[in-house]
Amino acid sequence: MGIPIASTLGMLGDNLTKRKSALPLAGRVVTAWADGLDLPHGGKTVIYTGQMWQMVPAINAMGHQLAQYEEKEADGMFRMVRRLNRLVNLTSFLARTTAAEREVYYERLRNIARLLKAAGVKFGYLYEDDWYAGALAYDEGLDPAFRAHAQRVAEMLKRHGVERLITVDPHTTNMLRSIYPKVVPGFHVKVTSYLEVLAEHPPKTVRPLDSTVTLHDSCVYARYEGVIEPPRELLMHGGAKLVQPDLEKGLTFCCGGPAETLFPTKSGKIAAQRIEQLKACSPNVVTACPLCLASLSRAAPKDVHVRDISDYLVKAYLPAAKA
Amino acid sequence: MKVDPDFLDTLRLGGEFNARQCINCGTCTALCPLGMEIMPRKLFRYALLGNKEAVLKSTEPIYSCLLCKMCEANCPGGVHIAENVRALRSYLNAEVLEV
Ligand code: SF4
Ligand code: SF4
Q1: pLDDT tens across A121-177, in order?
Q2: What is the CATH number of domain A204-322?
Q3: For chain A, what are the domain ranges?
Q4: Closest approach of chain B CAs to the CA of A269, in angstroms?
Q5: Model's pTM, two decimal places?
Q6: Domains of chain B: which residue ranges?
Q7: Which residues from chain B sit within 8 angstroms of residue A273, using beta carbons?
Q8: Which residues pair with A193 in a beta bridge?
């Protein structure tokens, strides 16, 4: 009973080994967000998404599919699916997404790139070489597949002559900044989260925020990477008023997202608990991680608005888009 | 209870496993959002005692850990709890689940 662990993880590991991602997306799905932004190809400093934002709609769809098997006996079927997936990439069947669902997440990436530009940061993009960094495989202990992949990513970055990566989510930041140097000998690429970059060079506030918000710290940013003050500084500098729960910063409470794939019920309960803590402070919940955003959005009742921090930063720091 | 004296060494092959520093205070279990009695203190006891069978029976807690480090941030023993859980997963993946 329960989602079969071996076949599910096996499939993620097989995908990483064969197709360079735990949930392999079509090339255009990875890069379409950058259309119209005129980001130069490559360069010493690049924005690196690690495909996390692009992957969230697929993770949501996959989670939805898997949840149906939480109370069933499905080992045999999952073993068969894994075998088949070795031959054909089943991601687009198992995790079907619509253009509208993808667009919600692309918009966040576009906003982040626009904010960096407004802050005067010069950066390029690797387009089809913006590869997944391997966080899920690492977390699930799929060590051989992860190590081989990390080596491959490091070689690709070297080929491009990349010296500095600007990351846009905590999991990719953690992989490239803290884990790769341990598993890839000689990996010395400088890795900075866009929140740290912006906090250091904040763009001018053009439309001060007139909102009271509560910030949900991602466990990975706060406890693994020490990224605690940058989101606060950026929100407050932009005019937002922060009202925080007791469980914040280094004591933040998880969004439940990491258990979503294998234990969706547990994951939902933890997310609901976190939403209760946050909503006691403000109905405007701000996240700084695509997985926290997805997990807390699922658990939020109608009167709680969960938004990514970039949604607020765009309002504060960029001029209104022309109609 | 069958004891496997080499169990801890086998776990260490997958990376760090520093549960020996655990003073069994219970802070981690009290703070863990999963609210499972076994997480993570008892699990580490089993590993330290070489109780391989009990660890093998604990796949659900091992894979449901969020690696959120709420426990670790408050652990007086300085136990690298998340890394230890990852080491257990790595072991189970290779030895039992064959992934
Ligand atoms: S908090 Fe640390 S020392 Fe205390 S029981 Fe948990 S692992 Fe052991
Ligand atoms: S890291 Fe795992 S054991 Fe520790 S508090 Fe989080 S869920 Fe519980």
Answers
A1: 999 999 999 999 999 999 999 999 999 999 999 999 999 999 999 999 999 999 999
A2: 3.40.50
A3: 5-198, 204-322
A4: 9
A5: 0.96
A6: 7-98
A7: 33
A8: A167
